[in-house]
Amino acid sequence: MNNQIYDVIHRRRDVRAQFTGAPIPDEVLHQILSAAHAAPSVGLSQPWDFIVVRDAAIREAFHEHVQYERAAFTATLETSAAQRFARIKVDGVLESTLSIVVTYDPDRGGPAVLGRHAIADTGLYSACLAIQNLWLAATAEHLGVGWVSFYREPFLADLLAIPAGVRPLAWLCLGPVTRIETAPDLERHGWQHRRPLQTVLHHDRW
Ligand SMILES: Cc1cc2nc3c(=O)[nH]c(=O)nc-3n(C[C@H](O)[C@H](O)[C@H](O)COP(=O)(O)O)c2cc1C
């Protein structure tokens, strides 16, 4: 049995703090994007697009917006949670080499998307599978990925001139890292813990 896929799956982490900013070779970036684009999709709709963001001004504007949303989230927290959250970094927008914004176009592959008639969200599921492929491929290339969702969709759509109706699903920071941690940051900071498989496993009925 080839265990490499399991190794990559278990090594994958969300990275915020360890980006070096070193360059990513073009062929490596192409491999990672090709892996994302090879994801399964409902009705073979391939509803994703990838925006590679290198522009410093765009990244700074996004980072400022993330700080604003971070403050908005902090305002919803009790004092002790706010103190714990203050120690947690939620993005590496400025430190990572580049970012990839993944979008979802519900009109792609239409009007009759095979398999989506009863569950509209299957389109979104498909785009998320592309993100997971990207994340695993980057891990296999020993690069870090950090998913940033501290943003309002209209802000990011406007910042990147995303067409109306297309949703920005994820801002992914990408690049070489000093190391990849073995435990999730949120676990290391006592915010959340991973649940054992047995607690989410059911047989025959819930
Ligand atoms: C949909 C989604 C949104 C996320 N948004 C953020 C975010 O805004 N900032 C952040 O630091 N991590 C974000 N994460 C990363 C999660 O916190 C991380 O995946 C989780 O704590 C488990 O850690 P691991 O990915 O290292 O296993 C996000 C992950 C997902 C799947």
Describe this structure in words.
- The protein has 206 residues and is of the alpha+beta class.
- The chain has one domain: 3-Layer(aba) Sandwich (NADH Oxidase).
- The chain contains 7 helices and 4 strands, in the order H-H-E-H-H-E-H-E-H-E-H.
- Helix 2 (26-37) packs antiparallel against helix 5 (122-140).
- The longest helix has 19 residues, at 56-74.
- It is globular, with a radius of gyration of 18 Å.
- The model has no long low-confidence stretch (mean pLDDT 97).
- Residues 13-14, 16, 90-91, 147-150, 184, 186 line the site of flavin mononucleotide.
Give the arrangement of secondary structure elements.
Layout: H1 4-11, H2 26-37, E1 48-53, H3 56-74, H4 79-86, E2 98-104, H5 122-140, E3 143-148, H6 153-159, E4 167-176, H7 185-188
Antiparallel strand pairs: 1-2, 2-4, 3-4
Helix pairs in contact: 2-5
The site of flavin mononucleotide (FMN) has 11 residues, from strand 3.
